[in-house]
Sequence to fold (332 residues):
Amino acid sequence: MGTVGGLLCGWAGGVARRVDRFDVTVPDITCVETLRGLLALLQDAEKNLPMLFKVIARRALGGHRFATAAGAKQLCPVSCFSTSGSSGLQPSQVQLKTSDAKLGNPDFTIHFLDAKSGDTISPWHDISLFSEREGCFNMLNEIPRYTTPKMEVATKMEFNPIVQDEKKGKLRNYHGPLYWNYGCLTQTWEDPTVEHPAVENCNGDNDPLDVVEIGSDTIPMGAIVPVKPLGILSMIDDGELDWKLIAIRVDDPAADKLHDIADVEKHFPGTVSGIREWFRWYKTPDGKPINAFGHGERALGKDVALEVIHETHAFWQALTRGETSVDKIWIP
Fold:
């Protein structure tokens, strides 16, 4: 082992002591593997910095556990966090194609095209998670604020267009409008095969990571916008973990003063509780029970939100590489 490798492996112990908020089972890896992982991460350090400390800490901790608010997780191999699976189109490279059928018709769809080639793409799989804006991620807006149609990326349909959700042959509408823009982060997935001990051992809900965007503008349906993550709620819906990322569009006038969930409480008091209560109660008019929340119902901070983003991105990478198998999900 070279001098640099020895220094890194020795330094890992010091780094590990600084990450005691995690709760991760960490497999032992060799220093060579550590260096390979670091090189992959450093190719795009700004996007992967949160994972950098985890990779280093693995070498120091071997099979021990150390603490995360997001809950116990089994880390993927180092290769999971390389940038090779993070490529994709940026919003400026994408065009929308809306069907002739209007909203409210079962045949209404919004498809997405590569603006250069004109080919149909998947907004979930083919648009990069990582925005060109520093520290931001690409949100696909499914439901503009103050609207009621329950729109979603159709994960089981070819090319994953946006459609209106159906139940028992009827189009679904919320019983009251959402007060925020609502969508998902591209290239993320909540793995239904993974349990989360910190959230009552719930498994993921088999969908992309949901985003509640709290900005002052109504974002059009199908728009792809860079957002700043601020915090996250661990909602439990029908026994499944359904994370709700709280974020703001980077170009919103308030974005410069919002950096973490505490800033939301300071500058926009009541917003977090409003989001939590809306999602707690929204299914009750259909005779369903209220939804629950993990972590003492607290909105967790930006550091945990980033952990969840990177974790769900790694789950998506494993899904698209065929390392995780689930029924009916459409993958290019």
Summary: DSSP finds six helices and 18 strands in the chain. The two ends are 41 Å apart (CA to CA).
